[in-house]
Design goal:
The protein is mainly alpha-helical. The chain has helices spanning about 20-40, 45-70, 75-95, 95-115, 120-145, 150-175, 190-210, 215-245, 260-280; strands at about 175-180, 185. The chain has a two-stranded antiparallel sheet. Helix 2 (about 45-70) packs antiparallel against helix 3, helix 3 packs parallel to helix 5 and helix 5 packs across helix 9 (about 260-280). The two termini are about 30 Å apart. The relative contact order is 0.12.
């Protein structure tokens, strides 16, 4: 949903800036490449490549967090936050999800104390470990659970559909702003488009996988996960305003930082994790 050199204003014969078409092409190509890689690794029966992919993602997110939070000592903060998050992730991978949560909390506290000694925001460092580490633990647990690939696909595809539809609907329809103080580009039309896309995607996936027993259940799941996606996107916008940055980074061509692309997905993963836990506890959906 989130989205100069002098040649950015160059004009082609029809009067449109060259940069617009080039920027769109870069966004589409980079998105397709990332989606193909992520889905390909997710489909593997061996969980180790998935663990490596999530670990790399966590490390990159921690680097971006360090740069946003404390640019002058970003490397130290990134190492502290990444150590807490990745250590907890590996404990979860080894089959100890509850212990991994306890380790994440302890690691978060340690990262905060380290930041305090460096005279930077200790709350920001501690929160960064929790913010990045929690979804990583949940998605690893999902992938290793029964029919785990399908659960992970639900998180990925609903979040991507909701995010893309919200961006498109917001651009096409415009209208009143959703939260202008923190995210001036997001509209209520985009919000509604994202929710509808999430529900439709969940319904289609349920028909294909048979993961849910009732069509209504799939629609509700889609609505909840889409809502979580929108909330994650808005929350990251507020965080960027807090740190005074426009983008979390420049890692992905045409998209900004990795956090700019997975902000909604992180919340969607936690939402799917909660739904998965309800199913494991015997809730029929």
């Amino acid at each position: 949903m989130s989205s100069q050199p002098s040649d950015d204003h160059a004009v082609v014969p029809d009067g449109k800036p060259k940069s617009k078409g080039r920027e769109l092409a870069v966004r589409v190509v980079s998105a397709l490449v990332l989606i193909a890689v992520v889905l390909g690794i997710t489909m593997l029966k061996d969980h180790r490549p998935f663990l490596v992919m999530i670990s790399v993602g966590v490390a990159l997110l921690c680097i971006e967090w360090g740069v946003m939070m404390a640019p002058n000592i970003s490397g130290r903060i990134a190492v502290a936050v990444a150590t807490a998050a990745i250590a907890a992730l590996f404990v979860g991978y080894l089959g100890h999800p509850l212990l991994s949560i306890l380790m994440l909390c302890f690691g978060s506290l340690c990262a905060g104390l380290y930041a305090y000694r460096l005279h930077v925001g200790w709350v920001d460092a501690a929160y960064g470990a929790l913010y990045i580490g929690w979804p990583a633990i949940v998605i690893m647990w999902l992938h290793q659970s029964k029919r785990g690939v399908e659960w992970v696909f639900f998180a990925f595809l609903i979040a991507w559909a909701a995010d893309s539809a919200a961006f498109a609907a917001g651009k096409f329809f415009g209208g009143p702003k959703l939260w202008p103080r923190y995210s001036p580009n997001k509209t209520w039309a985009g919000f509604a488009g994202g929710l509808i896309a999430g529900m439709l995607t969940a319904g289609a996936l349920s028909d294909i996988t048979g993961l849910f027993k009732h069509d209504t259940s799939a629609s509700v799941v889609g609505l909840l996960v889409a809502l979580a996606t929108m909330a994650g996107d808005l929350w990251e916008s507020a965080l960027k305003r807090r740190f005074g940055v426009k983008d979390a980074g420049t890692l992905i061509p045409g998209h900004g930082g990795l956090l700019d692309r997975v902000d909604g997905l992180m919340f969607a993963i936690v939402a799917i994790g909660g739904i998965r836990l309800l199913v494991m506890l015997g809730t029929e959906i």
